[in-house]
Every structure is written in C-alpha cells, then in structure tokens.
Amino acid sequence: MKKFIAILIHVVLLRVMLQAGDGYWVERASIPESRSQHAAVVVDGTVYLTGGRTAGPAMMATRSQLWAYHPDTDEWFTNLPDMPEPREDHVMVATGDTLWVFGGRNHNTMVTSVVYWIVGAPAWQEAGEMPLPREGMGATTYGGKIYLVGGKASHAMWASPVSRVDEFDPQTWQWTVSDTLQQARVGFAWAAHGDTVLCAGGRFLDPLASVERRIDGNAWEAAPQLNGPRSDGAAVFFEGNFVLLGGVGSEGQSGNNLVFDGTSWQTFEPNLLPRYEETAVVVDNAILVMGGRNGNQLLASTEQYIILTASAEEPELPAEMVLMQAYPNPFNGSLRVAITLDERVYSVHVVDVYNLQGQRVHSYAVQAGGGSVLTMRIQGADLGATGVYLMVLRYQTSDGTQHQLLHKLTYLK
Description:
Blueprint: E1 5-11, E2 22-28, E3 39-43, E4 46-50, E5 66-70, E6 75-77, E7 91-95, E8 98-102, E9 105-106, E10 109-110, E11 113-118, E12 125-129, E13 138-142, E14 145-149, E15 164-168, E16 175-180, E17 189-193, E18 196-200, E19 211-215, E20 221-223, E21 230-231, E22 234-238, E23 241-245, E24 248-249, E25 252-253, E26 257-260, E27 265-268, E28 279-283, E29 286-290, E30 293-294, E31 297-298, E32 302-308, E33 320-327, E34 334-340, E35 345-355, E36 360-368, E37 373-379, E38 387-397, E39 402-411
Antiparallel strand pairs: 1-33, 2-32, 3-4, 4-5, 5-6, 7-8, 8-11, 9-10, 11-12, 13-14, 14-15, 15-16, 17-18, 18-19, 19-20, 21-24, 22-23, 23-26, 24-25, 26-27, 28-29, 29-32, 30-31, 33-34, 34-37, 35-36, 35-38, 38-39
C-alpha cells in the first residue's frame, strides 16, 4: 500500500523557507578510477588525490597516481607525475604548495619512505624514511611541523595499533617522538582546525567509540564518545564543527553521518551513497567526499555537500500551516506532489525545479487558486542526474504581491 509522506511545513509568507546552514549532497564528476584507502588535500582551491586501492588482482591493486580536481569546472586531471611507489592506507598533508606523503603499504608490504611534490614540479622527491612504519594513521600540521598520529606498524591482522605521535620537521627532515594518544587506535576518523585535532573511533582490536582531542599542543584529552563504535570513516572540520562521514559500525556499514559541535554529537545530512574507506576535504565552503566502498563495491563517485543560505527578509505576514504531501521521496520514476493552498493565495501559475548549482532544469505550468489543492507530478526524466533538487512554488496573494515556497526533492536515477 502506498504511503504518503505528510510534512507539515510552517510557512512564513513572503520568505524563502531555507535557513542558513541547511545543505544537501549532490553528485559531482567521478574520480577517474574507483578507489579506497586513498588520500587527498587542498592547495589553492585545487583538490589533489594520491594512491589508494582499486579493483583487480590483489597484488596489483595498489596505485601510485596523483590526480587533481578543479571544483569550479568539475573536472579531474590525470596528467600529473606518479608517486615513486604505489601506496594505500597512507596519509598526505600540505604545507604551502608542497604535498607530503607518509607511510601506508603496497599490498601487504609496509612503505616507510617519505615523499613530497611541489605543485607544478615534474617529479616527486624523497625525504628520508619514517622512524616507525605505519598504516591507517592520522596526520596534521601545527606550528610548522607535521604530526603522524596512531595507526599500525604492521599489516598483520592481529598486530596491535600504536598510540605514538611522531613530529616531522619539513625543513630539516628530522623526527621527534611528540606524545601519545590516550588510546592506541587505527582506522579512525581525524581532522584538524586551527589549534584543535580530533580523533574519533577506529579500532584497537575491536571497533572503538571513544573520542579524544588535543588543543593548542597540550596533552590529549577525552571528548564525548560516539553513540556506538565506528571505524574507517572520514572526517573534516566544517563551519567550525567536526563532521564524521560514513564508516563501519558494530552492525556493519553505517548509513548516517554525525557532527560534533564541541559538546555533543548530532546527526548530519547522510550521503546519497553510504560509504567507508573514503576520503574527504573542504574546499570553497563545501565538503567533498571521494571514492571508498559501499559494501564490497569499490566506488568512483564524488559527492559535494553545499550549504544553502536564506534570501533576504521581506515584510512578514501571519504564519500559515501548509500540508504538503509527496510520494515517494526519494524517488526514481515520478513524484506526486499535493499542496493545499491558503485562502489568501490568489493564483499559482508556475512550478520550477532547480539543481543545487542554481540552474533551472524544468518548469511546470499550473493553474490553481486559493482554498484549493494543487496536484502535480514531477518526472525524474525531466531532471537528469541523480541528486537533490529544489522545487520552487511561486504564487500571488490577493494584495498582488509575489511569494515563493521551496521544497527539497531527492531523485535516485
């Protein structure tokens, strides 16, 4: 039996309904080849991605490529120099215009070399060896130094993670043992913002729910735990908050994302396609998630989370309740929409559908008046690609003024 999803939306007339901070995931250009356990950084608005694991014979699945993604044109570029050797489950950080890559493994062999690439250079260069082999670690920069956090020193299944934090000076290539985590962990989500580094979940032998952070170079301290164990996700700091994306929980792959505001964990808009072993960055005030796995399937898909901001305030009329029915939403064929119009609505003539880049993809001519129910059908074929769209209902009230109402649609092709 078909079940209508009834959503009561509190409409303030003459105002767009989106609030600042709302956002949605959209599809972007796929990476050139499916990848998991890869690494990415941003330099001057360009995303650089290295290594990772792809499909194929296990001993030949680890990759050495360097690719670049330009968000403004939604294009990937592959004509960049490969790293000297393949690696997966490694880390990469940027200092100025230099990309630094540490550790990881080539299939089952741990990689201890440190390599760097100056943007625009014809080749990578080597910068010595790590004092401790590592995979599944975290990395961050602070005070001109690079820090490697946790991970495992061996790829053996039952090898224990380490708690050690190593400091690397990119000027002298010298290493120092900095401090230790409270909990040894591998495969955790980590991100840094300003003077704060946060590590969430991961594994010791079993998956972990614990979270710890270091502020202003001080000792690591416990932070509020996750609501359950989670490993192999990605994380970014976005709008000042720590956003944990995907991963694997105690009952398998996690389909939800989380956000931590410094005091508590809340849910965050889920990805269009759940994933783990992905990588994520923030560029141009948007989150970009690339590759990973969905179940046993390696992914090449890229998703972008975009914040939508409210339009300027207009003179306010009394609030009204509007009953909006949509079935099914998300949808992959067509969507039936029914909107009950208030008596003060004089007429409705057009309904437009926009993608999240602000481009109008289709318009529907309609005719309805106040006190009636406007019924229409949105066809997926009219929209194009899978993603989130905004349906914009424009109407006129009896005093002759124009207004609009927005509603989110999710199309799964």
